[in-house]
Write a structure and sequence with these properties.
Layout: E1 3-7, E2 10-12, E3 18-25, E4 28-39, E5 46-51, E6 57-59, E7 67-72, E8 77-82, E9 91-101, E10 104-109, E11 113-117
Parallel strand pairs: 2-11
Antiparallel strand pairs: 1-3, 3-8, 4-5, 4-9, 5-6, 7-8, 9-10, 9-11
């Protein structure tokens, strides 16, 4: 059984910062790509940022220059540093990981963490 557990969401004022964390646990051989997505009610889930095992990154245009994704392979953890937050960043943020484990390779998702940007 593999689980992704997110933390770090909350309420922040416009212009503020938050750091999200997501730790994978279970019997894991390799974690390939990890990513953060976000989703508002009634909308499709969208990619925020993605990082490969080797550290290559890509970002949604809306967050470039403000958000930074990173990972610690020894801890099976991915982070999202969010700076200069805007009200339009308010969403539920989901962690994603492409994991090879006993039984094969599979996509995994976290339970989601709410980020609210409001004064």
């Amino acid at each position: 059984q593999v689980q992704l557990v997110e933390s770090g969401g909350g309420l922040v004022q416009p212009g503020g910062s938050l750091r999200l964390s997501c730790a994978a646990s279970g019997t894991i051989f390799i974690i390939y790509a990890m990513a953060w997505y976000r989703q508002a009610p009634g909308k499709q889930r969208e990619l925020v940022a993605r990082i490969t095992r080797g550290g290559s990154t890509n970002y949604a245009d809306s967050v470039k220059g403000r958000f930074t994704i990173s990972r610690d392979n020894a801890k099976n953890t991915v982070y999202l540093q969010m700076n200069s937050l805007k009200p339009e960043d308010t969403d539920v943020y989901y962690c994603y990981a492409d994991i090879l484990r006993v039984g094969g390779r599979q996509d995994y998702w976290g339970q989601g963490t709410q980020v609210t940007v409001s004064s």
